[in-house]
Amino acid sequence: MFIILYILFLIGLIYLIEKLPQRGSIFHFKTVFPRSVMVKQGDELTAIIWEMALVHEGEGPKGHFPQYKGFELLLNFLLKTMRIHGGSKRTVLGPLKMSLSSDLKWEKKLLAEYKDGIFQFFLTGLITWIFAIFSSWILEIELGTWTSLAIFFAQVIGVIIFHYFIKYFENKYFLSLFQISQKLIRFDALLKTSLSIQEILEFSEINNLPSVTENVVLRPLILSLLQLVRKWKNFGVCIKSEVIEIRYDISFLFDENFRKFIDLVKFLKFLILCMFFLTPYFLSIGSLLSGFLIE
């Protein structure tokens, strides 16, 4: 009975921490869906954008799109821009389509690592309790109350830390890149319209880039982008090719950061498994053996 309750509790805990609003998220909305649902919605949004990019006639659908990291807000902005100022869907939606596809590819890899970690925690925790209960029953020795509570809370804390450390490092690795990429897509789309320079700067918010003075990789990229914008603003020269190059640079940095992030998640998964699940397992063994030797 206890094992069944423990299984239900862990499932409920995982569901609860995934459903809680992600305060301090790098995105402009609170994610209230589990990560797996978010990935599914990302697939749906990707299919919509690919279909729209291939349709040359009509204004495209209006209304609400599946939510995925704010990409649906950017899609609405681009569609509104095309309805008011014109533009080719293939050209305007191309950068958004590629950015979303790349993000979704890595998000699926992260989801696989996340699920694998949760499964390992769940299985190790279950084995610990099965061993403790049956060993206690066979040896006719009760597992101490404090020992049981220590094992239980260690496992709960391990699951919570795993979830929130992923969110923390996700912010650290992708906050600035995400903001730059979103604004650059807006800027690139508005460059293809007849809007004035001041209107393009205002609507794209390209001058309001994040401060990354401590990031030796991003800082030169942002400085070069701001210099490019000033060159375009002051002299009116065509900068479309340079904007494309910066988009490629951001895409490369995004891929590199995600590779590092996935490796970090793997290490974090191993560390939490050792500290919060294997250690309680050996604690239960030690507690039962000490009780058996005393008797």
Describe this structure in words.
The protein is an all-alpha fold. The chain has a domain at 107-294. It is 79% helix and 0% strand. It is built from 8 helices and no strands. Helix 3 (71-85) packs parallel to helix 5 (145-191) and helix 5 (145-191) packs antiparallel against helix 8 (240-294). The radius of gyration is 25 Å and the shape is elongated.
Give a brief description.
It contains eight helices and no strands.
Give the number of helices: 8
- Written as H for each helix and E for each strand, in order along the chain, the element string is HHHHHHHH
Strand content: under 5%
Share of helix, binned: over 70%
Taking Cα atoms only, what radius of gyration do you get, to the nearest Å? 25 Å
Number of strands: 0
Terminal Cα separation, in Å?
A: 28 Å
Low-confidence stretches: 21-33
- By helix and strand content, what is the structural category? mainly alpha
Largest sheet: none
**Gross geometry:** elongated
The average pLDDT value, as a whole number, equals 79
Layout of helices and strands:
Blueprint: H1 2-19, H2 35-54, H3 71-85, H4 89-139, H5 145-191, H6 197-204, H7 218-235, H8 240-294
Helix pairs in contact: 1-4, 1-5, 2-4, 3-4, 3-5, 4-5, 4-8, 5-6, 5-8
Entry keywords:
8 helices; elongated; mainly alpha; 295 residues
